[in-house]
Amino acid sequence: MASRNWRVTVVDLSNVAIGKLSQAALELNVNLDLIVGDVVGDAAEYKFEPTRIDLIDLFYHLDPNLFPKIVSSLKPGGLLICKMSLHWDPDGGLTGVRANPLGRNELPLLVPELHVLYHEERPVRARGVVEFIGRKSGDAAGDEVRRP
């Protein structure tokens, strides 16, 4: 995205991940805004501002309280792309322990303002994975909805 002149901000808790990304950005000669920190809580280093973002990629961040901030920050027509873990027993149900705050079919319920473009949940090893793409209303003409 940065190579296509998008303004890209990356927030990650890992100094190592941000360091590697910084080096890759230098090698590719692209500009990135890199933040080591968190996006939730009172001390969050990144503050979501309303209606400012075109695209959010969210991978394996499991705080359900983040979703209202994400939806609010998307511009009309903006996209949320995310992939997260789910607890998944061999029969396809939830396990008894909810160390992971998301249950099966819970993610679309956390972002009811978004038009679901893609939603799939499947088992992967001893857990499950949910993949989701949603668009904020404003430019959803011709979108297809795909559900498992």
Topology readout:
Elements lengths: L8 E4 L2 H14 L4 E4 L16 E7 L7 H7 E14 L19 H4 L3 E11 L2 E10 L12
Parallel strand pairs: 1-2, 3-4
Antiparallel strand pairs: 4-6, 5-6
Features of the shown structure:
about 150 residues, alpha/beta, Rossmann fold, 2 domains, four-stranded mixed beta sheet, two-stranded parallel sheet, 3 helices, disordered C terminus
Distance between the termini: 29 Å
| CA-atom Rg in angstroms | 16 Å
Report the CATH topology name of the largest domain.
Answer: Rossmann fold
Q: Please summarize the sheet with the most strands.
A: 4 strands, mixed
The SSE order reads EHEEHEHEE
Query: What is the helix content?
Result: 10-25%
Total beta strands:
6
Low-pLDDT sequence parts: 92-98, 140-148
CATH superfamily of the largest domain: Vaccinia Virus protein VP39
Strand content: 25-35%
Global outline? globular
CATH class descriptor of the largest domain: Alpha Beta
**Total helical segments:** 3
Second CATH tier, the architecture of the largest domain: 3-Layer(aba) Sandwich
Mean pLDDT: 81
Spatially, the strands of the biggest sheet line up as 3-4-6-5
